[in-house]
Amino acid sequence: MKKLKFALGILFLSAASYAGAQNQIPMIMFEKIDDEQVPVAVIQTLESEYPDYKDVIKNGVWYSHFGHTVDRSGDVQKPTYTPWHYTYRGKLEKKNVEMRFTPDGKMVRAKGMDMSMKDKNK
After folding, report:
1. Would you say 11 and 77 are in contact if contact means Cβ atoms under 8 Å apart?
2. What are the domain boundaries of the chain?
3. How far is CA 114 from the centre of its chain?
4. Are the beta carbons of 91 and 55 closer than 8 angstroms?
5. Which residues contact 88 (CB under 8 A, 6 or more apart)?
6. Sign of the Cα pseudo-torsion (46, 50, 52, 54, in order)
7. Nearest-CA neighbor of 109 among 97, 120, 118?
8. Of the candidates 26, 48, 37, 47, the residue with the CA atom closest to the CA atom of residue 103
9. What is the pTM of this model?
10. Strands of 78-92's sheet, edge to edge?
11. pLDDT for 42-93, tens place per residue?
12. SS (H, E, C) the chain
């Protein structure tokens, strides 16, 4: 009886893990990207808020955060990448700076930025 319960338990767990894999839960990923890969709306928002950000923020780097899923329904497995947000990181007067944008260009967060830099640019 114990062996039967154990075998049924293993069968149930394997079926549940297979069904979970078919639901295509996205894997969270991020990677460093070039300026040319950032959406135009994001660049326009950053330049409107901080026109001389390239002169003031040192070692600025762009990152893309996205979800990655693979469609396994057909014979060919097709990957899908869904952008979640874009992040610009750098240094401003020895402080870490991080600005986060939605894919459509809305600024979500500006960590480490003081408003005095924004006021100087206007």
Report:
1. no
2. 25-120
3. 24
4. no
5. 46, 53, 57, 60, 61, 62, 63, 97, 98, 99, 101
6. negative
7. 97
8. 37
9. 0.68
10. 27-33, 58-71, 78-92, 95-101, 107-111
11. 999 999 988 888 888 899 999 999 988 887 777 777 888 888 999 999 998 8
12. CHHHHHHHHHHHHHHHHHHHHHCCCCEEEEEEECHHHCCHHHHHHHHHHCCCHHHHCEEEEEEEEEEEEEECCCCCCEEEEEEEEEEEEEEECCEEEEEEECCCCCEEEEECCCHHHHHHCC
Structure tokens at 114: 């003081």
Closest by CA position to 64, among listed 33, 100, 97, 28: 33
Terminal-to-terminal C-alpha distance of the chain: 78
Task: Find, among 94, 99, 32, the residue nearest to 62 by Cα.
Answer: 32
